[in-house]
Write a structure and sequence with these properties.
The protein is mainly alpha-helical. Helices cover 65% and strands 0% of the residues. The relative contact order is 0.10.
Length: 122
């Protein structure tokens, strides 16, 4: 029995992105260095939408701005997935590992309600 990834799964999205890249013969350009730089460019474009906004305005996006922000988030996410693909990193596993490490660095009794860096706990 062949298992097909649900269309909204991370695995399905990775497959779609890989097909998109392969069809255009872009693998040759997708070194980790190039992908990281491209992701940072997209992240900077995301930042532009919030630069100079008040805290409140950053929470109350117009429909147009929300759509623009969603496109920049998507671009950033796609590059992140490509970096992980090229480097053979399982992002789910990496995120779960990192959350475990962060739980140790930021114990609830010290971190709850605080924005202090973990180094300030020592």
């Amino acid at each position: 029995m062949i298992m097909i990834n649900p269309p909204d799964s991370l695995a399905s999205l990775r497959e779609r992105i890989n097909a998109f890249v392969n069809e255009r013969n872009w693998e040759q350009f997708h070194s980790p260095k190039n992908l990281v730089m491209a992701m940072i460019v997209e992240a900077a474009e995301l930042v532009e939408h919030f630069q100079w906004e008040t805290e409140q305005a950053s929470r109350e996006l117009t429909a147009e701005k929300r759509e623009q922000v969603s496109h920049e988030l998507a671009d950033t996410f796609v590059y992140l997935l490509r970096i992980a693909e090229v480097l053979n990193i399982d992002l789910i596993e990496a995120a779960n590992t990192k959350i475990g490490l962060n739980a140790k660095k930021y114990p609830i009794e010290k971190a709850r309600g605080s924005n202090a860096k973990y180094k300030d706990y020592e």
